[in-house]
Write a structure and sequence with these properties.
Layout: E1 6-10, E2 15-20, E3 25-30, E4 36-41, E5 47-52, E6 57-61, E7 70-72, E8 79-85, E9 88-93, E10 98-102, H1 103-124
Antiparallel strand pairs: 1-2, 2-3, 4-5, 5-6, 6-7, 8-9, 9-10
């Protein structure tokens, strides 16, 4: 849970680390293929968004650290800016574009991708 006692850092190896500033290391979140360039934490919640040199923005739920909740990869270059605003997510890239995403759309896309992956795994079994 992202709290005043929590610090989230992004690394050159593409991973995020959740730290408890009172002492102790939390989970490591993996989902980027290149260095993380920026991140933002939701003010009153569990979500963190990271932007990377791999042209992607990943949305994370710090309560479930296995995979990103959603991944946005529509930029043509590195993502150097990310920001939360209520139900919106903004990303900015060195490709000179800024994108605005609605979390409802991201959640629907993530659910569809998860269902498609499950169906493909079942078909392969």
């Amino acid at each position: 849970h992202v709290t005043p006692e929590t610090l989230v850092s992004g690394g050159g190896d593409g991973s995020l680390r959740v730290h408890d500033i009172r002492g102790g290391e939390g989970p490591t979140l993996r989902g980027h293929a290149a260095a993380i360039m920026c991140l933002d934490c939701e003010k009153h919640g569990y979500r963190v968004v990271s932007g990377g040199y791999d042209h992607r923005a990943c949305v994370w739920d710090t309560r479930n650290t296995s995979l990103p909740v959603a991944t946005y990869s529509n930029h043509d270059n590195a993502v150097f800016a990310v920001a939360f605003s209520d139900t919106l997510l903004f990303t900015g890239s060195s490709d000179n574009t800024i994108c605005m995403l609605n979390f409802d759309d991201l959640s629907s896309a993530a659910a569809a991708a998860t269902a498609a992956s499950a169906a493909a795994a079942a078909a392969a079994a």
